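Our collaborator T.R. sent over the components below with a one-line note: 'Predict the complex.' Nothing else. No constraints on interfaces, no templates requested, no preferences about which chain binds where. So this is a plain run: every listed entity goes in together, and whatever single assembly comes back becomes the starting point for the next discussion.
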Amino acid sequence: MTAPAASSAIAAQLIALFAVLMLVLQLLLVGQRMLLTSIRLFALQSLFLAGIAAVIAFFHGAFHVFVVAVLTVAGKVLFLPWLLDRQVRRMRIGQEIEPLLNFPTSMVVCAALTLFGYILARPFTALERLGNNTLAVAMALVLTGIFLMFNRRKAITQVLAWLTVENGVMLAAVALTTYGMPLVVELGIFFDVIVAVMVLGILVYRIRDTFASMDTSKLRQLKG
Amino acid sequence: MDALGALLLAAGLSGYVVAAAAGLLTARRGAIAVTLSFGLGAMAAASVGAAAMVSLLTHSAGNDATLQLLPTMIPSLRFSIRLDPLGAFFAVIVSLVALALSIYSVGYARHYVGRKNVGILGAFFNLLLLATTLVFLADNVFFFLLAWEIMALSAYCLVSFEHEVDEARSAGVLYFVMSHIGTGCLILGFFLLSQAAGAYNFASFHALGEKMAAGPRNAAFLLFLAGFGIKAGIVPVHVWLPAAHPVAPSNVSALMSGVLIKTGIYGLARVLFDFMGTPPNWWGVTVLALGTVSAVLGVLYALMEHDLKRLLAYHSVENIGIILMGLGASLMFLHTGHKALAALALAAGLYHTINHAVFKALLFLGAGAVLQSTGTRNMEEMGGLIRRLPRTAFFFLVGAVAISALPPLNGFVSEWLTYQALLRGFDATPSLFRLMFPLAGAMLALTGALAAACFVKAFGITFLAQPRSEAAARAHEVGPAMLIGQGILAGACVLLGLFPVAFLTLLDPVIAQLAGHPLAAELSLAGGLVLSSGAAGPGTVSTLGILMTGVALLSLPLAWRLVHARREQTRTGPTWDCGLAGLTPRMEYTATGFSKPIRMIFKALFRPHREVQREYDFSPYFAKTLRFESHTEEIFQTRIYRPLHGFVLRFSRRLRALQAGSLQAYLMYVFAMLLGLLLFAL
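Returned assembly:
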C-alpha cells in the first residue's frame, strides 16, 4: 500500500469516527433532560464537525476547508453555546426540558429516522467520496434534528434543535463534495446561522415577555 | 442605432427616474412637486419618443440596436434593451401618449395639492411610464418580467391612490390579483420557451415555435393568451378593467387605458408573431373569436353605463377586441401562407393600437376635465357643459368621432383596414373557417354602429342641453396645461386620420419584421393621398378626399346663405314647450332613457330589472311620488366571478383548520412534507 493511499485510509477512518460520534451526540441530545447540558452536547457535536473539516483540509490539502473548520470552532463551539448559555442563565428559566413525546418513544422514533436516513443515502454511496456513510449520518442528523424541533416546548430548545439540523446540512455538504462547497457559500451559510440565532434569541426573549413563559405551544393564543 | 439615438434613449429613461425622484423629494411642497415631476416626465417622454422614432425610421433589417443599461452581478438577468421595430413602435406610442399626459397632469394634479401627497402620484406615474417603456424594449425574459411586475405594482399604487375611497381599494385589489394570475401564466409560458431555446434572451426565441413539439407549443400559446389577455382586458378576463380605470386619477386612467393594456397586445404580437413561428389554424380562430366577442360585449356594456369613466373603460374592452380581430385574422392568413393579407390584417391591428391609444387617452383626459370641474362621474348629473367647457367639449367631440370610426379621423382608417382584411379573407381561404371572416366583419359593423350610438349618448348627455345639477351649472373651463395635453392628442387623431399612408410607411419595418411582407408601397396610391387595400383588392379610400368633399359640400349652403342673407328675416324665440310653463332640466332625455331600446333588444344579455313604485291618493294617474329603479346584470360577475369567489372563500375556510396556531404543528407539517418528498424520491 502506497503512502497516499494509507493516509487517505486513515482520513476515511477518522471521518467515519467523527461522524458516528456526531450521531451519538444527537441521540444523547434527544434523551437529555437538562437544558445547559444540551447546549454543551451541541458544542461538542459542532467540535466533531470541525474535526471532520480539519481532517479533510489536512489530508487533501484544501486550505479553504480549514477556514471552515476554524470558523466552526469559533462560531458553533464557542460563540453560540456561550450566547445560548448566557440567555438561559439570564432568563432564569427552568432547567427541565418538557418534550411532547416521552423519552423512550422519542428514542424509538429517532432510531426509525436514522434507519430511514441510511435508506435514503443508499443510492448516493457511489457518489460519496468520503465513504463510510457520512451522508447517511448527515441525513439522520437532519431528520432527527427536525423531529427534535417539534418535540420540544421551550423556544430555546427549538433553536438548539435547528442548529443540529444545520450541522447535518454542513456534514452533507462536506460528504457529497470532497472539498466542501465553495468558500463563499459556506461563509454565507455560516453568517446566516449566527444572525439567525441572534434574531431567534431576541424573539425568544419577546415570547417570554409576552407570555411569561417560553412554551411555544402558548403561541396558539395569538390566533384570532 | 447611432450615438444620438442611444444618447436620447438613455437620457429619456434616466429622465423618468429623475422625474420620479424629483416628485418624491419635493413632496412636501405640492405645487412644485407637480410641476417638477410631470414637467420632467414630459421631457423624458419626448426624448424616448424621439429615440424610438429615429430607430424606426433608420431601421435596416437584422441590425437591431442593443444597449446595456446597468451592470449586473446576477447570472442571466441582464438589463439589456433592444430597439427592434416592434419594440420601437410601441415605445413611440407610449412616449406620444406620455408626453400629452404629462403636460395635462401639470394642470390636473394641482387639484390634489394639499389633499393628497402629489409627490407620490408623480413618482409612481413616472415609474409606470419607465416600466412600460422597458417592457416594450426589454431583451430578455428576466428583465421583461421585472419591468412587467414594476409596471403592475406601480399601476396598483396609482389605482388605489385615492385609498380613502372603498371603491378604489377594492378595485386595486381586484387588479392586483388578476394581474398576478396573469404574470403566473407568463412565467410558465416563458419557462416553456426558454426550455426549448436553452437561453433567455429574446433574440434566441425568434421563430422558436417551429422547433417546439406540439404539446408545449400549444400550452405556451394558451398560457400567453391568458397572461397577456388579462392585461389587455379580453372578455371574459376583462372584469378588472371597468373596476380599476374609473377610480384611478384621470391622467392615470388615460395612461392605463391608452398604454398599459397595450402591453398585452405587444406581448401577444411579440410572442405569436416573433417567437411562435407559423401558427396552427386554431390559434388564429381563437384570437379572432375572442376579439369579436370582446368587441361586441364591450360596446354593449359601455352603452349601459352612465358613469362616464366606466363607459370609456368598457370601450377599451371593445377596442382591444377590434385590435385582436386584426391580429387573429393575420394569424389565420399566416397559417394559410397568404403573406400579403397577413401583413394587411396585422397592419390594421397595429394601426388600431396606436389609434386607440391616442383617442382613448384623449377621451379620458376630457372625462378628467369634466370630473374636475363638476366633481362627478355620473352623466345624469352633467349636461350643458359645452357652454361652460367649450374647448374640452371640442376635444372630446374629436375623440368621440375618432372612436366611432367616422371619417376622416383615425379610427375610421384602421377599422376600414380591418374590414378590408376580413372581407378579402373570405376569398383567400378555402376551408370552412372562412365563414369566420364575414361573421367577424358583420360583428365589427355592429360594434361600430353601437359605438357611435354610445358616443352620441356620452357626448349628448354630458355636454348638450341644460345642466342637470348645480355642480354642472357652476362648472368652468380647465387650465391651459390640461387643454394643451388634450390638444396634442386631438391633433394626433386628425393627423393619423388624414395621412394614413405616411403612418403606414412608418409602420412598415414592423410589418416586415412580423409578417415578412412589407406593405406600405402596395397600399399607397396617387403619391400617398389615397389608401388602397392592396394589389388585388377593390377597396380604396382617401380620408383627405373625404374631408375636402365634406368641406366643399358644406360650403354650398353657407354660400347660399351669404347670397340670400338680405332677403331673409331671423326671428329668435323660445323652444316650444308643449304648452307647459318653461322647460326644466328634469324634462331632458336621460342616459338611461337613451339606451333603453338597446337594453330591450339585448334583454337576454343584460337581464334588466326595473321597479316602479307610485304613491297616490285617489287615482294612479295623479301620483304624489314616484320611485323608479332600474339596473342591469353584469353576467360575467354574477355567473362566473361571484360563484368562483364563493368557492375560493369556502375552500380557504376549510383550509384554515390547518392553521392551528401551534408552532409544533407547523413544524410537523414541514417534517411530514419533507418525509413525503423523500419517500417519493426513493
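Summary for T.R.: Helices of chain A lie at 3-31, 35-60, 63-91, 103-121, 134-151, 155-176, 183-211.
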